[in-house]
Design brief:
mainly alpha, two-stranded antiparallel sheet, 6 strands, 4% strand
Length: 502
């Protein structure tokens, strides 16, 4: 070609003026098109097709392409409606025009583009300046499934920040490695959130919409992508940093937790004391008490030895049974978020009242064939009376008087008929000797157990008690009758003498 077939633009770029007719004939605008397309249909400006042509105002090839592409809108949709995905981009300085994607004279069919939509996009978007963006795109593209392509994330329809989060993180499979060598999984299945307590749900007739990713991850919403670097050195540091996220919605619960034994342990340097995430999880949060035994299993993640004892106890076994709704779980005794230290003097003296919450409840006890006398007889005996006095007057003062769990066990409470129970007759002496080391074999016989005396239980005590219940009223009643008749006789004699004197 001669120099006339080239035009040097002010940018220094060269615009080829020659046109190869074969690619044009084979394009969608060629001879096989449904409607004939002529040169002047595209180069519609009179100055563009009349010869000699007017001077080309374009300063660069990009300007020339943008100017020429405006002619496409005479037949096709506008650039703004046809190419919103690029226009929505944060960095849209170099928005592609029609010819950038479809070509010039050799314009191809959209069917050919759809055969390899990812490869088509990558013809321009193959590399990225930020290595994190490059790494994320390489992984996401490798994980795209059937029916997914670049528009899964980069849709022509404006996407919410929440949709963008879910689109990317559902396709990520790698893990973020922290400086400690530990990793954080970057994959998030959106379904786990929708099926969690934070998904769409109805509570007491009120409809609640699902939480958005950016409701919790506010920093990521502010910074966008690529996200700010995670500066946590370990998984635990990351968990502790994220704990405050719950505060924005659960302020009252958060404050209660900050006054718990777990929070105090963290303040004292035990960074592995339980946080919100340790108990509730992160994305797949479920109802903590549905099913009910989930509560104790959750506590068992940290307190495994205690959970093992509890699961084999009378309470733990009942929890898995048909009437498990009445069986106490960890939070019934220790509290939910404002968990107290169970080793304090206050917790000890208040523990009988804690046990009595169930064992003094006639309705609950009747369902299990247990007498409420268990609690009543305890607070009526020497141990219970003393402990109750401490509870009311000096709850923070130490006392060595036995409380319920001193005899029955703490987490390992067994049925009173179990051969390993601490309160079964053959084991009772050993239990008593924990407080009374000098106790002999007949020491436990002085205890009448928690049953109120009856003909079936402690018959002698019952009969003696009945004897005095009969004797004392008879004796006192006899004295009252004797004194009363004597007083009556004296008054009667006085009245009669007075009448005789008259």
């Amino acid at each position: 070609m001669g120099s006339e077939e080239e035009l040097l633009l002010p940018s220094g770029e060269v615009l080829e003026l020659g046109v190869d007719l074969e690619p044009l004939e084979n394009s969608v605008h060629g001879t096989h098109a449904a409607t004939s397309v002529y040169c002047t249909d595209c180069h519609a400006k009179r100055g563009g097709y009349r010869y000699p042509h007017e001077p080309n105002p374009a300063q660069s090839l990009a300007e020339f392409a943008a100017d020429a592409s405006q002619n496409c809108e005479s037949c096709h949709t506008t650039l703004e409606s046809h190419n919103p995905g690029h226009l929505l981009a944060a960095d849209n300085v170099a928005v592609p025009v029609c010819s950038d994607c479809h070509g010039g004279h050799d314009v191809g069919s959209t069917a050919a583009m759809r055969e390899d939509p990812i490869g088509f996009c990558q013809s321009c978007h193959a590399t990225y300046n930020d290595p994190r963006v490059q790494e994320a795109h390489d992984e996401i593209i490798a994980n795209l499934g059937e029916g997914q392509d670049c528009q899964t994330c980069h849709s022509d329809v404006p996407q919410s920040e929440d949709a963008q989060c879910k689109a990317c993180h559902s396709l990520l499979s790698r893990q973020l490695t922290l400086s400690s060598g530990e990793t954080i999984d970057l994959h998030v299945d959106p379904e786990t959130i929708m099926e969690s307590v934070h998904g769409d749900r109805e509570i007491q007739g009120v409809e609640y919409t699902a939480l958005q990713c950016t409701d919790c991850h506010k920093q990521q919403a502010f910074s966008g992508f690529p996200h700010l670097y995670v500066d946590a050195e370990s998984r635990r540091d990351f968990t502790l940093e994220m704990e405050a996220v719950c505060q924005s919605c659960h302020q009252e619960i958060y404050e209660a937790q900050r006054d718990s034994v777990h929070a105090h342990a963290q303040e004292e340097g035990n960074l592995f004391a339980a946080t919100c995430f340790d108990c509730h999880g992160n994305h797949a949060i479920q109802d903590p008490d549905s099913p009910r035994w989930r509560i104790s299993e959750t506590c068992g993640q940290c307190h495994s030895q205690i959970y093992e004892e509890y699961s084999q106890s009378v309470h733990g076994v009942a929890l898995r049974g048909p009437e498990g709704a009445d069986a106490p779980v960890c939070t019934d005794c220790h509290g939910v978020h404002s968990i107290e230290n169970p080793l304090t003097a206050r917790f000890r003296v208040e523990s009988p009242t804690l046990c009595g919450g169930c064992h003094a409840d006639k309705e609950i006890m009747d369902r299990h064939g247990i007498s409420t006398d268990v609690f009543e007889t305890y607070v009526a005996d020497f141990h219970g009376t003393t402990v109750e006095l401490f509870e009311k007057q000096s709850p923070d003062e130490e006392t060595n008087k036995a409380v319920c769990y001193d005899c029955h066990g703490v987490h390992n409470i067994l049925p009173v008929t179990d051969e390993n129970s601490q309160v079964i007759k053959q084991n009772l002496l050993t239990t008593c000797q924990k407080c009374h080391p000098d106790a002999t074999a007949n020491f436990p016989d002085a205890w009448t157990s928690h049953y109120k005396p009856s003909l079936q239980h402690n018959a002698i005590v019952y009969l003696v008690d009945m004897f005095y219940k009969v004797l004392i009223p008879l004796v006192i009643g006899g004295f009252v009758l004797f004194i009363g008749t004597d007083v009556f006789r004296g008054l009667w004699d006085r009245v009669r003498r007075k009448n005789d004197e008259q």
